[in-house]
Amino acid sequence: GAGVSQSPSNKVTEKGKDVELRCDPISGHTALYWYRQSLGQGLEFLIYFQGNSAPDKSGLPSDRFSAERTGGSVSTLTIQRTQQEDSAVYLCASKGGPYNSPLHFGNGTRLTVT
Amino acid sequence: KQEVTQIPAALSVPEGENLVLNCSFTDSAIYNLQWFRQDPGKGLTSLLLIQSSQREQTSGRLNASLDKSSGRSTLYIAASQPGDSATYLCAVPSQGGSEKLVFGKGTKLTVNP
Does the pLDDT at position A16 exceed 80? Predict the structure, then answer.
């Protein structure tokens, strides 16, 4: 009965380094979402997966950001050459039912770029 | 472009009070609206989802209403408790039935014992 699991919970990295953030959705959930939450900006959509495909990746801020999903389950969000403005909480959510089903969020990964 | 506004940004009430949180959105052609709760350092918990064909949804002490034509939703909390203290966010699809949600910046609620 586990919920959405994200790792690590906190990540501190130096500017210019690459980071990988992981999301384990609820078992059986076919839809997976990444959002970013930063002070003053609220929650911003990054990307949506249906199975292993990403029909909507319109929210990825630059080509330094990429995400993949394998086996219709785990997803990884990768940020290359991190910048200080990338500091935020990265939230993952999944949904298992039809369109009008609620989202289930993980507790997020707090990324700090120094 | 869909925009979501929540008023007030913060609210402090004594325990036991009934209260209303407001959410407005600019594009009324939405399929649903969701209300979430976020506790400090945690993710979001879905509270209520109202489909476009519905006018309200209830869960325990919570009641959410939706008026699509005016682009508004309210979350009513009855007999507030200190455990209700959290940030409440509403979200709607960016357009129609899009999977991309647009969130308001939330109302931070504090219920004082």
Answer: yes
